[in-house]
Amino acid sequence: MIKNGMINIPRYLAGGVLFDSVFDMGEDKEEKNMAHYVQYLNVGYGVFSNTKEVEKWNVKEAFEEAMLLDNPDMDIRIIGFRFYERINEQIVQESGVYYLSGEVISEPASDKAVVEYFQNAQRTIPQFPIVKVSIPYLLVYPFHEGDCILERSEVVSKGELRSKKERIMELRNTIEKYKNSVVGELYQIAEAFESEEFSCIPLIALEGQEDKQFLNLVKDDGDFGLHIRKLQKYIQELEGLQKPAH
């Protein structure tokens, strides 16, 4: 990592090494195995898995994930991300860099902070547009075609994102536990029925229907639909939270 100098973000990634050149796709177009990836750009020293496979290039989802990954305590400082597409282990297409924050400076020599940045680094001030990033500290990158700076106002706050993620995990666990409790008791009832231990089967007589007995499954007072309604409520909330961003 270079803090005091011009950092060129290369355009392609392969085998853990960054390259500026374009890959030759070759002539063989059979047996293609296409995959999409998002790569998060970390300028801190913290180590984490910065690349993951995605179904499609979704800027908003990647933006939210980048905000959640940024963790000063772990020295993981995410300044942006980019997408790329790989076919048969070769990168064939890549997006520009999506910066989480920053400013495009068309004439670097006109910006005092940028001028001081290059003077301190004893480097020549560029004559082409650059991106000035101020968070987590001053960094300067060439501004390439396809690069852009995102607005944090386009997504909810980091706290809200964490709450959303925690609620999703909570709902998944609740749904799983609830299903297991109902299925587990049904299994016990089946075993009792098979072994003719009828006294072990939880039955209940409802008011006005004393001549009949109903299963009292997980204390549902004879209303099995209660479990379906509860699960439907949890599932609807979960689906709403997991609804893909557009």
List the helices and strands and how they pair.
Blueprint: E1 12-14, E2 17-19, E3 34-42, E4 51-54, H1 59-69, E5 78-87, E6 90-94, E7 98-99, E8 103-105, H2 112-120, E9 130-133, E10 139-142, E11 148-149, H3 158-194, E12 203-206, E13 209-215, H4 225-242
Parallel strand pairs: 7-11
Antiparallel strand pairs: 1-2, 3-4, 3-5, 5-6, 5-7, 8-9, 9-10, 12-13
Helix pairs in contact: 3-4
How would you describe this structure to a colleague?
This protein is of the alpha+beta class and 246 residues long. It folds into two domains: 12-154, no CATH class; 158-242. It is built from four helices and 13 strands. The chain has helices spanning 59-69, 112-120, 158-194, 225-242, and strands at residues 12-14, 17-19, 34-42, 51-54, 78-87, 90-94, 98-99, 103-105, 130-133, 139-142, 148-149, 203-206, 209-215. The strands form four sheets. Strands 3, 4, 5, 6, 7 and 11 form a six-stranded mixed sheet that branches. Strands 8-9-10 form a three-stranded antiparallel sheet, with no helix packed on it. A two-stranded antiparallel sheet has the order 1-2. A hairpin with a 2-residue loop joins β12 (203-206) and β13 (209-215). The protein is elongated. The two termini are 34 Å apart. Residues 1-31 have low confidence and may be disordered.
